[in-house]
Structure prediction request, 235 residues.
Amino acid sequence: MGLDIYVGSYTRYYAGDWETIVQKYGRETGMQVQVIRTNPAEEVVDPDEIRPGIIAWRNQLSKGLGANIDRPLDWDESASSPYFTDKPAWNCYSSLVLWAAYAEQPDLSPPYQCVDDWTSDKAFQLSTEPEFKSDFSQIIGNVEIWLPNDFDFTFNTQEPNGHEATFGSSITLVKQLEELNRWTWNASDIEFAQWRREGAGAEAPLETAAKFAFALMLDLARQAVAYRLMMKLDY
Prediction:
């Protein structure tokens, strides 16, 4: 099961009007690519039929959050909205999660290699205990969808297709990723771009994999904020 990150509108996502980077490569090179998702899109693919349902769902979500947000949820669901996507792979994404957990658990030393099951890791378990207030909740909090509204909490609810998921804020995600960089690498945007170009293979050390996922996630989160789009894990 692969992992991609999608930044765009829900309408475009459910309409299937987007490509993963692997699909794009396959189209450009003539290579056949088949994508199978655990949470498939709706059968309806007409954007004009999908969009009203998304807007109604968003309005209900805003109403449900009530005073927890200072303004109604809002992001671009228009037909002309752009989208962005990239593929961190699970080993890199999980390495970023653990890198954040170990940053706030300084008495523990991170493993050298990637970890298959990050939920069994001691640092992760400590950072996700109910009584622990994590500085990196948007990174380690099992968030699947980040919305371009400014709030500092995460919450569970159903997506428009009924899938139960944890939601967060892409604005806060950007802040927390930048804070994680200040705590650990203190690297520049030029270095982030280099980490992304270099990538990380399946056998890469945890820190190398975390750097790749960090650079990719930060860039996509910044795009989500700049263009007012939702950001979603796709698998």
Notes: The mean pLDDT is 92. The longest helix spans residues 206-227.
